[in-house]
Amino acid sequence: MYQSSINERKLSEEALERQLFFIEKCKEKVSEISKELGRPLKCCTQTFGCQMNARDSEKLLGILEQIGYLPTDEEKEADIVLYNTCTVRENANLRVYGRLGHLNAIKKKNPHMIIALCGCMMQEPDVVEKIKSSYKFVDIVFGTFNIFKLAELLFNRWNSGEQVIDIWEETREIVEELPTQRKYSFKSGVNIMFGCNNFCSYCIVPYVRGREKSREPKEIIREIEHLVADGVKEVMLLGQNVNSYGKTLEKPVSFAELLREIEKIEGLERIRFMTPHPKDLSDDLIAVMRDSKKICNHMHLPVQSGSSRLLKLMNRRYTKEHYLELVEKIRHEIPDISLTTDIIVGFPGETEEDFEETLDVVRRAKFDSAYTFIYSKRTGTPAAAMENQVPEDIVKERFDRLKTVGETAHSINERYVGKVLPVLVEDIDDHDSSMVTARMTNNILVHFKGTSRLIGNIVDVYMDECRGFYYMGHIAKQPALQNKED
Ligand code: SAH
Ligand code: SF4
Ligand code: F3S
After folding, report:
1. For the segment 357-395, what is each residue's pLDDT rounded down to a tens digit?
2. Which of 179, 207, 269, 393 has minimal CB crowding within 10 Å?
């Protein structure tokens, strides 16, 4: 076992060197094209889907910037456009196809433009076939297991003049240490594991992200230490089922133990994680959260349905009662916690009674917010083959009812009015440039008067007013700023 991990590392080192070679090659090519055109080249990356994809996109952008591209948000002025796709629901796929048509029109005016597609949708053979036959203007297609190869694939595209397709079936090597371009200087996602072994019957993720694989705690700690040295105050630990972390390691480590180690990192101020699974939520994890000074006051705990009958068909491996007991236990140990969830409406065979059970859970669990999704049939999953799919109009009607019940439950947010709370300032407010937007530890946003100098700082804010999903406030105490000057 030990030997194999050394070999794996060696393989990764070789793969890293290979990619650094292609990065250099691409750099030469970019500077050549840039001289011809008399301007710098630009790249535009678009991310669909979850935080894992967002983190992957930071790695992809890191490579593109290293090659010499300048980032832009405008597709029409980009020399390479890269879509990191999601396929969790049919809608995600439709959006990508729709935008590809639009990109084709831009490419006609700008023929040297490169269009690259990667991510979960590309792991589906049908999608790749469709791109090969009907979207010939797409230059590069790769999947979720080989994002580190972007420079090599780009170089191959330029060399061959043909569409380059490279899809792997599983992780062959994890290449660490390639350049990464973080979206925020002060917070970062950190992968603690890849893939998923749960096979919830509706879900395509295990098929497109492969088997669960945890990273070594040492590697995770080292990455976070580097991030902190680089100014990061908050990390979000990422995995499809974070609380099953460590089970497949040579020396198993639990998620709670990992959190205890991460807590010790000096300079790190906030720890978040996404997503825990109710079936693996241990008392130890709740205790670590209760006792921690850094773990945020928020847990996103997807329930999916309130009906134990449906939960069984979904292969979630917990019951309604078990879920509600967990909620009670969590609220008892961490009274101020904010709980959020995911719910699917219209899973095959969902009856009115099943749906009522879901409404009951929403009322009883008092979620701070719930992401509700209409069930989407995903090819190859067990649920897609189930016979009694629920008619669209019934699903839509239930979806609307769930929204109404959910909205009443949200009034719970009012509880912070009149309090002073520490918040991490993230951005200038989208709607008013004299304001900033910040996040409380419970993940709720607050807007208040402030300048860009506050970004990346934790400041105390007085919560004046709750407006449903967010707060308006004012700064309670001027902080000693730690970052850049105006
Ligand atoms: N690993 C996480 C969530 C991954 S996908 C977990 O287990 O909680 C994010 C959310 O998308 C899921 O929680 C689920 O609510 C929703 N989802 C997944 N597959 C879906 C499908 N086929 N149709 C509708 N919603 C789906
Ligand atoms: Fe999908 Fe279930 Fe895995 Fe989450 S735990 S990614 S819902 S299979
Ligand atoms: Fe979508 Fe892939 Fe995430 S399917 S939700 S981007 S793991």
Report:
1. 999 999 999 998 899 999 999 999 999 999 999 999 999
2. 393
341 and 303 Cβ atoms separated by less than 8 Å: yes
List C-alpha distances in Å: 14 to 1, 173, 177, 215, 434: 20, 10, 12, 19, 50
Q: What is the DSSP string of 385-402?
A: G-S-PPPHHHHHHHHHHH
Tokens describing residue 66:
């290293």
Q: Please tell me the predicted confidence (pLDDT) of residue 301.
A: 98
Expressed in angstroms, the distance from the first to the final Cα of the chain is 53
CB 459 within 8 A of CB 477: yes
From the CA of 33, how far away is ligand 2's center (Å)? 44
Neighbour tally for 33: CB within 10 Å: 14
Total length of the chain: 486
Residue in the structure block whose two tokens are 């062959």: 172
**Closest C-alpha to 1, from 216, 211, 147, 280:** 216
Q: Strands, DSSP E only, in 290-419?
A: 298-300, 338-345, 369-374
The residues near 153 (Cβ < 8 Å, ≥ 6 apart) are 116, 140, 142, 164, 166
Geometric angle at alpha carbon 114, from 112 and 118, rounded to 5° = 175
Distance 109 CA to ligand 3 centre (A): 32
Tokens at 6, concatenated: 């050394």
Ligand 2 binding pocket mutation candidate from 194, 201, 211, 240 (most atoms within 8 A of CB): 240
Question: Pairing relation of β-strands 435-440 and 420-428?
Answer: antiparallel
Question: Which-ligand-closest: CA of 196?
Answer: 2
Write out pLDDT tens, residues 34-53: 999 999 999 999 999 999 99
Report residues whose beta carbon is within 6 angstroms of any ligand 2 atom.
196, 198-200, 203, 205-206, 240-241, 277
Provide the token pair at 260: 């205890």
User: Which residues, given as ranges, of the chain have pLDDT below 70?
Assistant: 1-11, 174, 408-413, 478-486
Q: Which two tokens stand for residue 229?
A: 């040295």
User: How far apart (Å, rounded) are the C-alpha atoms in residues 266 and 435?
Assistant: 31
Residue 293 CA to ligand 2 center (angstroms) comes to 29
